[in-house]
Design a protein that fits this description.
By secondary structure, the chain is mostly helical. The chain has 2 domains: 88 residues, Non-ribosomal Peptide Synthetase Peptidyl Carrier Protein, Chain A (Orthogonal Bundle), CATH 1.10.1200.10; 306 residues, Rossmann fold, CATH 3.40.50. The chain has 17 helices and 7 strands. The strands form 2 sheets. The chain has a 5-stranded parallel sheet, sandwiched between helices. Strands 1-2 form a two-stranded antiparallel ribbon. It starts with a helix and ends in a 5-residue tail after the last helix. About 3% of the residues have low confidence.
């Protein structure tokens, strides 16, 4: 039965109200259908994605927002609320066999100027200053007994780790929950204190979602259990053990990009787990920088938001610091327990890479690993309450297939000459021909 445009409009306005009511700043003017989401409401690109995911959750249907939000490989500059309503109305009432057109085509990011060089390339001295703003990691005591083996995906943010996680979740021999954010902390009380604020609270949800999946609990039941662990100061190693026991014979895989930002966090994995394995996920630095800037990550990271460095420099230094740490850590781990994987290969030849990863992990390759957009509930791509609150890359929801073009899209916007010499050196160590 066709849905009326007035109903579509009302639901979308409600979704927008829910998203914006969580922001610090009150809107200066009332939002109407003519309001521009960037100019008038204050959207960043990540807000577009959250908005799209929340709308699809509201209507319980994939709508193909990629067609509206991206033009020529780049996010649109802006959209009116009316354009969003028209798009959703058209898609909901379209012939399911045919591809619905994009109504009132959104403005494209026009006249993109490829940046060939920068005046302030990243230097080793800048990286040392950057490292000073990274939160220190409290040392873990030596446990009386290590946990059984687990797998850790090590990468900077915006490296494709969400895609890799969800692909791995297609293997029945693995348990691959959303970002757990456990390894960085001594106990659950410290973890809560570090993450329970307006910018980071959603990072607490990965463990909740994992408990829901493993125990068949509701969100309320999982939160109640987690709260008890926090109040009792349960060690994060013990909480990992709870997850591993509940997972049975499945191998736990933890994908949390913030681990690689601090070498001491990586050492905790060796301290707390028996023969842990590591996937060193790499992506060309320019690809990571482009994704980082596009997603406006600095807005969600207060320490970096107040930094004097540009967003581009912050993105490059995050990439550099994480890979410097991982490469140094790899020197301390037996070579048969760490595997380097390039994002570019993952999206261009996914079966080859997934078979290689499965061999490394000692599990059987499953063809379902190549279809990450299937069985979304089992792969835990939703949040505890709504999909727009999942931890990880929300842009995953905009796609319907693995996109090989994503590997080199950054070349429209950057030359490798924007990179500092220290970054180029590390990129070469990761196998990139720069």
């Amino acid at each position: 039965m066709p849905i009326e445009q007035t109903e579509v409009q009302a639901k979308i306005m409600q979704v927008l109200d829910t998203i914006t009511e969580e922001w610090d700043d009150d809107l200066d003017e009332e939002v109407t259908l003519t309001s521009k989401l960037v100019e008038d409401v204050g959207f960043a690109s990540i807000d577009f994605v959250q908005f799209a995911v929340a709308i699809e959750s509201e209507f319980k249907q994939k709508l193909g927002f990629q067609a509206l939000l991206m033009q020529d490989g780049a996010y649109v500059d802006d959209l009116s609320l009316q354009q969003v309503v028209d798009f959703v109305f058209t898609r909901l009432n379209a012939d399911p066999v045919a591809e619905a057109p994009v109504p009132n085509a959104a403005p494209k990011e026009s006249n993109v100027q490829r940046i060939e060089s920068v005046e302030d390339p990243v230097t080793a001295e800048m990286v040392e200053e950057f490292r000073k703003i990274i939160r220190p990691c409290a040392p873990h005591s030596v446990p009386s007994k290590k946990n059984k083996p687990a797998v850790f995906i090590l990468s900077p943010p915006r490296s494709g780790s969400t895609l890799l996680r969800i692909m791995l979740a297609g293997c029945p021999e693995l348990f691959v929950p959303p970002e757990l954010h456990l390894l960085s902390y001594v106990d659950m009380k410290e973890r809560l204190a570090a993450l329970d604020d307006e910018h980071n609270r959603h990072l607490l949800e990965g463990t909740i979602r994992a408990l829901m999946q493993l125990k068949n609990w509701s969100g309320e039941e999982a939160r109640k259990f987690s709260k008890a662990c926090e109040e009792n100061g349960m060690s994060c190693q013990a909480f990992y053990n709870i997850l591993q026991i509940a997972a049975g014979d499945r191998l736990l895989v933890d994908k949390t990009p913030t681990y690689a930002v601090n070498l001491d966090i990586l050492k905790n994995a060796e301290n707390d787990f028996e023969n842990a394995k590591y996937i060193h996920l790499q992506r060309h630095p320019c690809g990571t920088i482009r994704s980082y800037e596009e997603s406006k990550l600095t807005r969600m990271m207060p320490l970096m938001k107040d930094s004097e460095f540009s967003s581009r420099a912050l993105a490059e230094m995050t990439w550099l610091t994480c890979h410097q740490n991982t490469l140094k850590f790899a020197e301390q781990v037996p070579s048969d327990r760490i595997l380097a994987v390039q994002y570019e290969n993952l999206v261009k030849q996914p079966e080859v890479e997934m078979r290689r990863i499965c061999e490394f992990l000692g599990v059987d390759f499953n063809p379902e690993m190549l279809n990450p957009y299937k069985d979304q509930d089992q792969r835990m791509t939703d949040g505890v309450d709504v999909a727009s609150k999942m931890s990880g890359d929300l842009k995953f929801h905009l796609h319907q297939n693995i996109d090989p073009a994503a590997a080199d899209r950054w070349r429209q916007f950057y030359s490798e000459e924007i990179l500092g010499d220290v970054t180029k050196d590390v990129a070469k160590r990761c196998g990139y021909d720069i």
